[in-house]
Amino acid sequence: MQNNLLIKKPELLSPCGDMERLNLALMYGADAVYLGSDYFTMRSAPKNFSPEQLKEAVSFAHAGSKKVYLTCNTFPHSEQLKDFDRFLAAAEESEVDALIVADMGLLSLIKKKAPDMEIHISTQAGIINYESARAFYNLGAKRIVLARELSLDEIALIRDKTDKKLEIECFVHGAMCMAFSGRCLMSNFMIGRDANNGLCAQPCRWEFEMTDKPRPGISYPIEFDNGGTYFMNSRDMCMIEHIPELVKAGIDSFKIEGRAKSAYYTAVVTNAYRGAIDGYFNCVDDNYKVEPWILNEMDKVSHRQYSTGFYFSHPNEEPNIDKNGGYIVNWDVVPFVEKCEHGIKT
Q: What are phi and psi of 26, to 5 degrees?
């Protein structure tokens, strides 16, 4: 019989691209949210938060005893650093709970200019071993977001070999990148949009053909195991059925990907993982199985073919390539319930 009272319940961390998604994430059970502002964010497509909106968002979250983490996870060029003082001042004024940082220079600036600011090291930093984790901890990091290329056994080893005060965060759901820890040059090379500054056009999702230079106009499909021409198109991660394994590996925060995704996605996926986490911790034995309604919810959001990422297999063994283009869409959103009066939802 398990005793989950002795196990720390992991934080559920949800994405939000605007106030609507923040409200829904907190309403449906997130313990914390992460979001971007006008600068230094890897997701420039969402609306993101102005300084005024950021202050409002943090105030709203804190009123419900929830946390807000602000992304600062790009790799800025020198000319972009002129905006950092303004960014940092807005972060401090809004009283965000932590900054998510990838660049060593920005980490140094934060420690110098805002020494009391909590720092989380982004997955973009590519942490895959305990010595790297220790190094960032010694530089002042409170939390590390591990690279998605790690197995559960490797995560457990990092947990075992690092100070228990260092928190470990891992992605458990959402889109994956074909490049190591999201460090990709394809978008910049092909169409001039810098993926490492939040402008990725996702060319890895495109369908490719090969042309014969001496015979222009003649093209050939590029095939991957006879499965089609999408040979860099990663599947989506879904670890909803593996909450016990994630908890036992020592992960402190379960992170859902998707700041650029819809409010509906934010609500449904957050609610499902809230149900799965609570279900496991309320289970009185070691035979926890996720409830059917939770699995059904996973099918109700648009997604690529699901996988368990690299938690159970090495990239060389299972590259997790989705050989179909586009999303799987089995359900459509009809209305949003805005209020309930006299037992009637409108």
A: -70, -35
Whether residue 285 is predicted with pLDDT greater than 90 in this model: the reply is: no
How big is the CA angle at 142 (ends 137 and 144), to the nearest 5 degrees?
Answer: 75
3-state secondary structure at position 167: strand
pLDDT digits (tens, 9 = 90+) for 157-215: 999 999 999 999 999 999 877 665 666 666 665 666 666 666 666 666 566 666 666 76
Domain ranges of the chain: 4-182+235-307, 186-221
- The DSSP code sequence of 134-185 is HHHHHTT-SEEE--TT--HHHHHHHHHTS-TTSEEEEEEEE---SSGGG---
The DSSP bridge pattern shows strands 344-345 and 340-341 to be antiparallel
Buried b (16+ CB within 10 A) or exposed e, 100-122: bbbbeebbebbeeeeeebbbbbb
Give the residue among 227, 203, 185, 220 at the shortest CA–CA distance from 322.
227
pLDDT on residue 316: 64
pTM above 0.85, yes or no: no
Compute how many other C-beta atoms are within 10 angstroms of the C-beta atom of residue 80: 14
4-182+235-307 maps to CATH 3.20.20.70: yes
